[in-house]
Amino acid sequence: MNRQSIKTVAVLNIIAGIWLFVSPWVYNAYHDKSAWNSWIVGAIIVLFAALRFSVSGTRVLSVLNMLLGAWAFASPWIYGYTGSSGRFINSLCVGVVVFVLGAFGSSMTSTTGHTTHGAPPPLRP
């Protein structure tokens, strides 16, 4: 995969993270304690995606976002807001999107000649 694909996935994750961050206000749930989960997880998703955007060789950031996507998906049951259909569906959708993008992003490496792991190639005499 090329650098542009990595950036595209990172930008989509940034958008999903921003949406998760603002969603408590959209769904009028900013007064609930569970809103902190959306604010914190959304901000971390944005941070990890922004770092992945700028440093394409760090696939672990995509793996971490994948885990945050799974957390966002499970959050309605953990925090007990499954009865709020808008927030519930929102968390499920954002969770799936971030998880899939994280999985896809973790499989990508930059083709700019930089390696992401391992020792440099041996020198030839």
Largest sheet: none
Kindly provide the radius of gyration, computed on alpha-carbon positions and rounded to a whole number of angstroms. Answer: 17 Å
Q: Which assembly state applies to the chains in this document?
A: single chain
Mean pLDDT across the residues is 87
Helical proportion? 55-70%
Label the overall shape.
Answer: elongated
- What is the overall number of helices? 4
Low-confidence stretches: 112-117
Helix and strand string, N-terminal first? HHHH
The total number of structural domains is 1
Query: Which structural class do the helices and strands define?
Result: mainly alpha
**Count of distinct strands:** 0
Report the end-to-end length measured between terminal Cα atoms.
32 Å
- Strand portion: under 5%
Summarize the structure.
The protein is 69% helix and 0% strand. The protein is mainly α.
Detail the topology: elements first, then pairings:
Blueprint: H1 3-26, H2 35-54, H3 60-79, H4 85-106
Helix pairs in contact: 1-2, 1-4, 2-3, 3-4
Give an account of the 3D structure.
- There is one protein chain.
- This protein has 125 residues and is mainly α.
- It has one domain (3-106).
- It has four helices and no strands.
- Helix 1 packs antiparallel against helix 2 and helix 2 runs antiparallel to helix 3 (60-79).
- The model is unreliable at 112-117 (pLDDT under 50).
